[in-house]
Amino acid sequence: MFRYLIIFFILNFNNPVLSSTKNEIISNLKKINILSFNFIQTIGYKKENGNCIIKYPKKIYCEYNDSRKKIIVSNGKSLIIKYRSSGNYSSYPLRKTPLELLLDKDYLVSKISILEPKNVDNKYLRFEIFEKNNKINIFFDKKSSYLVGWQTEDIYQNLTITFLSSIKINQEIDEKIFLLPTKN
């Protein structure tokens, strides 16, 4: 019995395929400066979708396809959620959100390099990060080694799952999109 346990641990914790894929994930992340994508986000039973642009480090611009025309913008220090339909917005320090960690490529690379990935449905690799009272699961496609989503708790303690699609890397963008909106 003891021999089987040792074999199990060796096969599951020193899997060369997972190690190789982890190295590819790190290599891919290091090459990315700008990431554009469509998303589907689930918060509880509510689904939202839209598109985002991330510029490392710590900048994001997202437009939601909803009736309130919500946008989310971070300039690296603050996070603004604005409803264009009403002009109202809320401002949060980025450091108080899980996005602070997700938008920091160097931080992600350093964490992924020391974490062991978990195989999900033999299709994705999941890295689980615990930091600053945040639990973040980051998912990468096992074949391409690219980011495909994340799972966090939002500022209201709601479980938020975000799936990425139509991913484009290092495309030219207008830097003005990261300017924080002003109240109309």
Question: Can you characterise this structure?
Answer:
By secondary structure, this protein is an alpha+beta fold. It has a single domain, classed as Lipoprotein localisation LolA/LolB/LppX (outer membrane lipoprotein receptor (LolB), chain A), CATH 2.50.20.10. Helix content is 23%, strand content 43%. The protein contains four helices and eleven strands, in the order ααββββββααβββββ. It has helices at residues 2-13, 16-31, 99-102, 105-114; strands spanning 34-43, 46-55, 59-64, 70-75, 78-83, 89-93, 118-120, 124-131, 134-141, 147-153, 159-169. An eleven-stranded antiparallel beta sheet has the order 6-5-4-3-2-1-11-10-9-8-7, with helices on one face. Strand 1 (34-43) and strand 2 (46-55) form a beta hairpin. Helix 2 (16-31) packs antiparallel against helix 4 (105-114). It starts with a helix and ends in a 15-residue tail after the last strand. The model is unreliable at 1-17 (pLDDT under 50).
Radius of gyration: 18 Å
Biggest sheet record: 11 strands, antiparallel
How would you write the strand order of the largest sheet? 6-5-4-3-2-1-11-10-9-8-7
Structural class: alpha+beta
CATH classification, class level? Mainly Beta
Let me know the average pLDDT: 87
What count of structural domains?
A: 1
CATH architecture descriptor: Clam
CATH evolutionary superfamily: Lipoprotein localisation LolA/LolB/LppX
**Beta-strand level of the residues, as a percent range?**
35-45%
